[in-house]
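Model it.
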Amino acid sequence: MDARVRPLRIPPEMAIYAEKHEIFDLVQTLVKHLVVDKPEDPIQYLINVLKRDSVDVPRIILIGPPASGKRTIAKKFCEHTQAIHITHSNILKDNTDLIRATQQYQEKKQEIPKDLWIQLIQQRLSKTDCLRRGWLLEAIPRMQEEALRLQEAGITPDHVVMLEAPDVVLIERSLGKRIDPVTGDVYHVTFKWPESADIAQRLETPRTVLPVDAIAKKIQKYRTEAHALKFTYQNCLKTINADQPHVDVFAQALNFVLSRHRSASPFTPRILLFGPLGSGKSLQAKLIAQKYGIVNICCGELLKAVSADEHHMGELIKPYLESEQQVPSSIVLQILTERLSRIDCTIRGWVLHGFPHDVDQAEKLHESNFIPNRVFFLELTDDIAVERVMLRGVDPVTGEWYHSLYKPAPSPEVQARLWFNPRDSEAQLLKRVKEYWCNAVGLQAFYPQAVCINADQDPHTVFESLESRLVGRLPKVLPNTEIY
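Modeled.
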């Protein structure tokens, strides 16, 4: 980087490294910790934060009415994310001065003072296991005042999951609830019965099971605070219908927790589009480039443009194109990397289609330091792909493309003069589609975070799917997690 040159040419490797290691987000997180915790020794404090296994750990609050399945979902969360499960009861199990002070109120059957309760939560979350692995607060906070006090203490979640279900369902679940006294797991006589006969035999009816009227009052008490809690956590809240199998509830909640909030870090799009012939790669690349001002690079069109040039590289590839032979990968890569290195691609970003065709080419592109940050596979059945291409013709007078089914010619005269590519026979197209799918398996493995999108839809629907994943951040992958 030469400081004497204006504008400054920042090497693309810097942006790739910063995005890969999320440097900008790391700095934001460190500043946030400093502002919230206000340590006496900021430098040593930041060193200690960076020494943790991960700065970006789960910080989750799970709330919901009685019998909405909080305990079941919380346990599954912690199994998948390795976060520490925090409940009202296990906070009070430690042997500390604060706990002993709390026990005095419990022995007198008095309510724990709010300030003391917040200190207890703060003390538990400041322990090493929560700092390293993250935490999940189950049914904490219970009211808005408690939520605001937690915020004042610097305890802010990244994700809040609120479970909801009709009162009738909640009452039925409460009456049928059973507890495993060994593990503490919650089951239900109708909705969730254990597969093991040994577990089923030892299940007990909870001592806290109340009459219907009392259950209804608890639900109503929760609902009086729920609206205020929604307002408090509106920027990081997702409400999920709990009146469905717990597996489905957990899948929705996990997907939400693995999602990440919009980042303020600089982002230069580097997009790869894959798909069989007829999947609409050219159209989608054009739409993306038009809306976001990034550079649209079709490898085939780029080679044609270079061959029209009288320079050395143009003369080199012209014989291949004239004889309809495949240009060697080494030459294509040399032309492509030169184009991607230009300042417009560096500053505005790029969307590339038509290259790479296989894993070997993908590896060479990666070695050249042109690493995409979004990869999409436009999926289409073989029959639809062949139909889209075989019935497509161009009007030699206007240059307009038409299709016998999707966009018929406006008149018999135009239909009569349409030109159909003789290479687009059904046999040839099926052969090309088969070649694509042979390479697609390896390419999907090479780009594990690639997104597959159904291309057999209206083009603007496909574009909306692409756009939503282009603008939003990729979900984070925690140890032992799968994205449902």
